[in-house]
Amino acid sequence: MSTTPSPISTGAGGSTFEHSVQTEFICLMIGSGKVPINRFEAGYIIDHISFQAGYKDVETDDMVVTFQPKDGSVNRIFAQMKTTIRLTDNSLFKEVIDGFWKDCNNPSVFNKINDIFTIIMGPPTNVNTFNNASLLLDRARSSLDYQDFHSKIIAYDNMEQIFNVFKSAVEDAKGEAPSESEMWEFLRCIYILSYDYNNDPSHSKRNILHFLDITKKRVQGVEESLSVWNNLFAMVAENNFKAGILTSQSIFNKYPSLIDWFDQAAIPVNPVKIKIDEYKIGMLQTIISSTSIVDEEIRTLLLESMEDVYTKLMELDIDVIKGFLNRYHHPRESNPNLSVNGIGELFELLTYINCRVKSWSIQNFEVANLKVVEQDKSGWVQLIYSTNKFTFPMIILDLGMKLYNQTPYNNYFENRWIIENANMDSDNENLCDICGLGKDYPFSKLLIDFGKIVKIDYFKDVPGNSNGYKDLGNVKICCAKCIRKVRESVNVESLNDTLWGVLAGD
Questions:
Q1: Which residues form the ABC-three component systems C-terminal domain (predicted)?
Q2: What is the 8-class DSSP label of residue 34?
Q3: C-alpha 12: how far from its chain's center?
Q4: CB crowding 386-420: b at 16 or more within 10 Å, else e
Q5: Were both Cys, which of 60, 84, 107, 122 would link to 78 (CB 3.0–4.6 Å)?
Q6: CB 396, CB 478: distance < 8 Å
Q7: Burial degree of 89 (CB within 10 A; 0-12, 13-18, 19+)
Q8: Helix (H, G, I), strand (E, B) or coil at 287
Q9: Sign of the Cα pseudo-torsion (42, 48, 52, 57, in order)
Q10: What is the pLDDT of residues 200-211, one digit of tens each?
């Protein structure tokens, strides 16, 4: 936090963590990437980034990100970076809030409508506190006024505790208790981001290098992404020392080879990441605030699993995901374009599965698309997302016609099917073997009860036709709702047992 207007004194104290985060934002600027704050959706393009801006009477001076005008307004991110900060009642946290408060109440520096503050920190020492703080700030932004906001947090002790931490810091910054409206309006402006650049290996660095690699593939860049990163990092460090300002043009002037690398027309938008990022917000709120989670150890496990799955999915090549989605979606249709329907729900289901099974991989085989491995056990699962919200019988019979020639008839349900987004309005059509009628439910009975949905003659050549298709065995179906219910387990051991039973169909 700046206490002197000297550019030299304000620019010389940058750390490796700080420079790394700043370099990532530089990559997003010249690559037209989306910043990790949902308020700035697609269409917000970074115009320039200022470093160590204390000489401009800015208290929050580590980095100021300024976007190009949008709808006649200029939006900015004022970021303060503290890799070891804790979101508790301590001097470092209060120092950051003090700077935010001063800038927030200086209209020559900060616009309360267009600008935001961001605390950028290393990996949180307490994941629950971090998530409660993030959710608290989200609730402030989604509320009509202080009364609406306060009614949303008083029901949760953990959230009210973190609110009191912020309130105490604001009281110290103001010198007296803030009014209710002042407190609410101030919290609406604050976001929290976490990066692990000081870790080895670093997921944050791996992700941004992957972003560079994708760009390189599209424009046939000749340099290595790590080389590009190192050059940009050095430029950021130099401009921190000088309290400088960087634009895309100033970077391209120094490194002309990057003009082609970051050709705007060639840089792809990752619709999978956008969709999962959107879904993740509601999922995070559900896990943190759900009263059905009775064991806090399970809540922590789910939050950690969610981040683990997010990282794994972001590392996958887009072509791998596209191949998987072609088998995940029902009806299965040949679509040359990428459809991300159900990708958020997939992220959620994998989060639950990952609590027990850490070694899994998505595939694009016809009869199974998720491989799960645990110690000496392994198996396959067929994940299905009904894009048209069909019933279980419709999905089973339709896929049966498509898969009949690709798997031995007596292994039709060898692999577990987990179906998401099915129409389960009718109890008679709920063939989940956990919450419905599917336990020991013969496929032959399915043909008798629901055969009019398709042409049963399709199965006439199956050996066993004379005995009523009994050789086709029993259905092996689970609905996604039963996967979600594992979070209601009484403890982690019970959750693990239930999960394996659901996956194995035992």
A1: 296-490
A2: P
A3: 34
A4: beeebbbbbbbbbbbeeeeeebebeebbbbbbbbb
A5: 60
A6: no
A7: middle
A8: helix
A9: negative
A10: 888 888 888 888
- Spatial strand order of the sheet with 245-247 comes to 190-194, 116-121, 76-82, 63-67, 46-51, 245-247
Which residue do the tokens 């460090």 mark?
237
Exposure of 251 in the CB half-sphere (CA atoms within 13 A) = 29
Domains in the chain: boundaries: 7-194, 271-504
Mean per-residue pLDDT, 146-154: 90
CA distance 45 to 12: 28
Does residue 37 register a pLDDT over 60? Answer: yes
Name residue, tokens 């931490």: 165
The pLDDT confidence band at residue 329, using thresholds 50, 70 and 90, is: very high
Strongest mean pLDDT among 124-138, 180-194, 403-417, 472-486: 180-194
Q: Is the pLDDT of residue 118 over 90?
A: yes
Query: For residue 175, what pLDDT is reported?
Result: 94
**Mean of the pLDDT values across residues 249-260?**
85
Q: In the Cβ-directed half-sphere of 140, how many Cα atoms lie within 13 Å?
A: 23
Phi-psi region of 466 (alpha: psi -120 to 50; beta: other; left: phi over 0): alpha
pLDDT band at 480 (very low <50, low <70, confident <90, very high): very high
Residue 441 bridge partners (DSSP): none
Q: CA-CA distance, 495 to 372, in Å (whole number)?
A: 17
**Greatest distance between any 2 Cα atoms in the chain:** 91
